[in-house]
Write a structure and sequence with these properties.
single chain; about 260 residues; alpha+beta; N-terminal domain of MutM-like DNA repair proteins; Helicase, Ruva Protein, domain 3; 4-stranded antiparallel β-sheet; 7 helices; about 20% strand; elongated
Amino acid sequence: MPELIEVESYRTAAARLVGSRITRVECADDRYLRHTVDLLALRSVLEGARLTDVGRHGKVMLLGTDRGHVLGVRFGMTGRLSVDGYEPITELRYGPSGTGDGVRRFGIGTTAGAAWVLDPRRLGSVELDPDLTVLGPDAASLRVDDLRPALRSSRALKAVLLDQQSVAGLGNLLVDESLWRAGLAPGRPAESLGAAEQVRLVRTVVRTVAQLTRRGGSHTGDLQEARDARGACPRCGAALAVDRIGGRTTIWCPGDQR
């Protein structure tokens, strides 16, 4: 499932189109435009515009144009990006694969090449001029002061971290890995964290995102092999627990995470 790290790899791939002019906009299913104008209106805004930059906030890839508009692309749980046939990620660990026309949901052609969103389950979307104020701070550059308001919640700590309004970019794998590394139980009420624990959590999230980005994906965490096997904690050897928290399967170590 694409989390911040995967979307960053998509952003890097799409950056090769910066400076080119958009020649066409394609969408096989209008439902993929459920957060934006219809296809004809989108074409009138984007076709002929020049791509000025490709950014990212959380899990949203942002394509800026010289007309002042920004196209936001959300990849949902199964979305991937192909730029002129190059896919930075050819298969998501927990998602279906596929590259044929049947999974091509949205695409732009430019004078420098074409980019397509491949989404087997059609859970992503595109949006013109997305409102990023509804998203929390980006997890890659998270600060304690950014997260502290969200931690004043009685909800489970994992549920808070998965909430994109609290912090943008984290998914199931990154949250479980970060909480395991920080030694914090995912089911604890977020408001129960002390000041030192808050600092430890934020520092661990930022370091985990940076390290797993260098390794190549959200699935490259130290917990991953044991997670897949439902095995023992790589740190203490105790049996890992499997719970449902924040609507997601949660793997954690009751011996190490308090």
